[in-house]
Amino acid sequence: MQFRRSAICPVRFFTARAIATRAVTASVLMLVALLTGMSAGASPCHAADRSLTSRLFGERAPEGASAWDKAMTSSLRLVAARTGSTPLPGETAIAAGVEITLAPGWKTYWRNPGDSGIAPVFDFSRSRNVAAVEVAYPMPQRFELPGDISFGYEDRVVFPLSVTLADPSRPVTLTADVVYGACEELCIPVEASAELDLPARSGGATEFAGLIARWQAMVPADHEARVEAADIVTRDGQDWLHLRVSASAPLAAPVLIAEPMPGDDGGMGTLYLGPLDMTYEGDAAEFMLPAKPLRDAQGLAQTGGSFRVTLADLGPMPDGAMKPVWAQQFELHLPPRDGSGSH
Fold this sequence. Notes:
Layout: E1 11-13, H1 16-36, H2 44-48, H3 52-56, E2 69-70, E3 74-80, E4 94-102, E5 107-114, E6 116-118, E7 121-123, E8 130-135, E9 141-145, E10 148-154, E11 156-165, E12 172-183, E13 187-198, H4 209-216, E14 226-235, E15 238-246, E16 254-260, E17 271-273, E18 277-281, E19 284-293, H5 300-303, E20 305-316, E21 322-334
Antiparallel strand pairs: 1-6, 2-3, 3-4, 4-11, 5-10, 7-12, 8-11, 9-10, 12-13, 14-15, 15-19, 16-20, 17-19, 18-19, 20-21
Organism: Pyruvatibacter mobilis
Protein name: Thiol:disulfide interchange protein DsbD N-terminal domain-containing protein
Domain Thiol:disulfide interchange protein DsbD N-terminal: 95-195
């Protein structure tokens, strides 16, 4: 199994606003640690945002779910789609999920948190009879503030899991140790743990099967969308990433996230993509993102670049919230552009 757990809270701060709040975050964590009586040797991230009440007074969990691990502004648990650990005929893994709920006004983050925030880190190495766990990341919301662009989730998120068993004939204990961020004006790192036992049977569907399926539908997959054009445009000395896309049906509320990919071709660490401009009509949309070089790097027109682009269309859910109806991901590789004139 390939699992990773960070012993250090993986906080990423890039903007002046986020840097200013970092000292405030540290002060808050120290104060909460004192109030909760953090034991010697305990992780400050863990102690600062873990409610002792949830450890001392457990709640009875419904079938197919672990108990909630409750923090000050968020809670986490494991859920499963079925009541047993035996995969159905034709399947090689069982479906589960890590569910996080958040207090009003708070959010948590995607695998790429953007300019500031805390990407989640999942560790399943304490599980029993588990060969591998694959974590899927539903399409996030795009949050834009002056000087700060981040990607994440408000209110609730379920990260779908595909759990491959070591021995399908035996019961399973799925254990998740997770570091994630609960963020409002400042970000609080949270360490949470959840454990879910599944007996050795195929069982029936749990009350969480539909919930997991809904969030799985928001994970990028092939939905017959296409990138019709991708190029580099220069206007008044500013390089822009220009994209034109089409979908298989009329777009209601398209959203796009473009990530520079690592490498020596304008990759992560040398290029910043700013707030996007968007127009759309029918099944077509056009996006423009300013591409700003970092640390004296050359501009995008001179270097070219590789990008991971995630496109989605939003629609109203039963609770009235706008969520992705579908999402699709593309990889783009743009060569350097000859000349310096506008296109």
